[in-house]
User: Fold Magnesium transporter CorA from Sphaerimonospora thailandensis.
Amino acid sequence: MARTRLYRHGVLTAEGFPVADVSDHLEDPSAVVWVDLHAPTEDDLRAISEELGLHELAVEDALQRKQRPKLDVYDSHKFLNVYAARFDTESGRLEVADVAVFITGHALVTVRTSDDFAIDEVVRRWDASPRLAEHGVAFLIHGLLDYVVDSHFDTVEAMDEQIEALEEMVFDERPVGPDEQRRTYELRKSLVTLRRIVMPMREVVNTLLRRNEEIGDGALAPYFQDVYDQVLRASEWTESLRDLLGNVREAQLTMQGNRMNMIMKRVTSWAAIIAVPTMITGFYGQNIPFPGFGAPWGFLTSTLAIVLVSVVLYRVFRARDWL
Assistant:
């Protein structure tokens, strides 16, 4: 199913018209058309391609999944591919939704593979800024990118809170359990995915900013600059969180190793203490007479030796912080 809009002189004049009417509307130089295609087939894209004269390579990219964020420039149009992101705080997993965009002088076509990309939120941003609609396609692109970059920023912020919680647990006396280890792993994997979709956005938005005169009158340059600043903040924040999470994981492993060393020192110390009475009793268990054999003072001497040597070993180990 296709969703359509028509702007004339910066005013929304029609919605929900057939895709076949797009070329008729574009005969008016003041008209700007938006077409949204949800999970289109090859025939659907072929129809809109004939209406707008889209390049076959761009159409092929729109049908493929897992494209990297990019901006391809063709003679008659541009092809944009970006991802919106959402972080699940319960599972620590990152959910991404892609959208392919065809940009011409008077038309914007969005192609979504699923409902995960909240196109209604993009439309809400367009409706919230009607005074910018007079700038045509540049206005539509700005609203789309503004939503995408905001989703990146919100995701980074949510991940930052999760990593702060992990930081506080590093120096707890309680050892790191399987749940915390799994959460750290999920966060690390999500950050890798987020980095793949955030880092290329700097080049995408920067190219649009430099070529803004081709898709508008240049009046939206400050708005695109604001989006670019958000992209830089999100990318830098992602990089810092990636390093911070790596440090948290290394600190967890270090603390775990230190705890294991302390346990081994305690076990070894107690084993040494226990070995002393074992040695004395084993010595007196020989099948030959020993000093005090058969006399009460011999038993008292061996018992006193056991207690005295054990106390001395305990105090020595305690002084060296082995116990």
User: Anything to note?
Assistant: The first helix runs from residue 22 to 25. The first strand starts at residue 2 and ends at 8.
